[in-house]
Amino acid sequence: MSRKYDVAIIGAGAAGMMAAFTAGRRGRSVVVLDHAKAPGEKIRISGGGRCNFTNIHAGPKNYLSENPHFAKSALARYTPADFIAMVDRHKIAWHEKTLGQLFCDDSARDIIRMLLEEMRAVHVELKLSCVITEVEKGADGFRLATTEGPILATSLVVACGGKSIPKMGATGFAYRLAEQFGLPVTETRPALVPLTLEPNLLGELSELAGVAVDADVSCGKTRFREALLFTHRGLSGPSILQISSFWREGDEILLTLQPDVDFLETLKAAKRENGRQQVQTVLSQQLPKRLAQYLTDAAKLERPLADLPDKALSSLAERIRRWPIKPAGSEGYRTAEVTLGGVDTAALDGRTMQAKTVPGLYFIGECVDVTGWLGGYNFQWAWASGHVVGESL
Ligand code: FDA
C-alpha cells in the first residue's frame, strides 16, 4: 500500500525544506525524501561553516540564466528581508561580512535547525537515507518507488540540487527526471569554481601558492573586484570563483592587482626620492612580498631604481594593471559551489515553478537554470523558489 501525501519533495536541501514548511503551513500533507543521512548538508558546510545565508542586495541582476527575467517573480515575492525575519524569529545571531553578505555568528547548523523546526511545527515528514528508484505519473498523481516503500503524491517537487560536490551526494537526478518528463535541460557546467593553469605557467607561479591579493578580475565585459588567491592548482579566491561562471574554455582573463594603486606613479616617485631602492622593495609596500618578488624576477628588474629607465618601470606597472592569463580549465564539480545551467526556465512557470507541460510537477533551487553570484545569492534563490512553490501547492 502506498503512503499518500498532497506533496512529495525530493531533496532535503535549502530549497526543498523551504518548500516543505511553506506548503505545510497551508495545511498540505508533505513528505521530504533524501538519500543522504542528514538534511541540509550543503548548508552545513557553506560559508566556511557559518552559512552566507543571503545577500541584502540580491536582485535579478545577480543571477545567470538563459532567461534573465525568469527569477524576477520569485525573488520579488520572497526577499532577503523575509528570510532575515525568520532568522531573527529563531534568535539566530548574524552579521554582515562584506558586500551585503550575511553570515551566522555561530554556526550554519543554526540555519538547518531553524528549517527543521519550521518543518516539525507543521508536521512535515522527513525520510532520510531514502533512495528513489522510480517516478511515474498516473491518473491519481505521482507514484514513487523508494527504499522506504511506495509513495503517492498529488504534486511532486524536485529539489535535489545540481552536480556540484558529488562526494556529498550530488547526483544530477533532477536533470534525469526533467528529461523523463520531456522538459529540456540547458548545458550544465561547474561554476563558482577555482580555475586551473597549464603546467608551464603553474610551474612558473608555483612559488606564489597561498598568496592572496586584492584584484579586479575580468573576462570579456564582466568584472569582479574581490580577493584573488594563487594555489597549487591555479587561481582561486572570490574574484576567480565569480569570474569562473562567465569564463569559457579558451577565454583569457585579465587581472588588475591592487587596483587602487597607481604603480607607475609609485615606482617613479620612489625612483625620484631614493634611487638606491630595489624595485621589489617598493612593490612589496603595496603587494604581498612573494608576489612583489615574482613580478620583479619575471620582469628581470632586480636592480636599484636609479639604474632602470622609466620605460622598464612603465611596462612593469602595465603588467600589474593588465595581467592576461589563459586558464587551462576548472577544478570541475569536485570543488564547484554550484552548477551553471539546468532545467530550462522556458519549460517552467516563474510564478509557481510548475512545469508548463506536466501539471503537478515542480522544479526549484539549484537544479533550475538560475545561478547566483558568490555571496549568499544562491541560497536566496533556493529560499525564494522554495517559497513560491510552497505557496502555490
Ligand atoms: P542542495 O544541493 O542544497 O540540496 C539537494 C538535496 O537533494 C541534498 O540534500 C541531496 O542529498 C539531495 N539529493 C540529491 N540527489 C538525490 C537523489 N537522487 N535522491 C534523493 N535525494 C537527493 N550558497 C550561498 O548562497 N551561500 C554560501 O555560503 C554558499 N556556500 C557554499 C559552499 C560550498 C562548499 C558549496 C558546495 C556550495 C555553497 N553554496 C552557497 C551554494 C548552495 O549550497 C547551493 O546553491 C544550495 O545548497 C542549493 O540548494 P538546493 O536545495 O537547490 O540543493
TrEMBL record:
Q: Does the keyword Flavoprotein apply?
A: yes
**Cofactor requirement:** FAD
Show where the RsdA/BaiN/AoA(So)-like insert domain sits: 189-338
Keyword terms, alphabetized? FAD, Flavoprotein, Plasmid
Every copy of the RsdA/BaiN/AoA(So)-like Rossmann fold-like domain together lies at 6-391
InterPro entries, A to Z: BaiN-like, BaiN-like_dom_sf, FAD/NAD-bd_sf, RsdA/BaiN/AoA(So)-like_dom, RsdA/BaiN/AoA(So)_Rossmann
NCBIfam families from the UniProt entry:
aminoacetone oxidase family FAD-binding enzyme (TIGR00275)
Q: What is this protein called?
A: NAD(P)/FAD-dependent oxidoreductase
The major lineage groups are: Bacteria, Pseudomonadati, Pseudomonadota, Alphaproteobacteria, Hyphomicrobiales
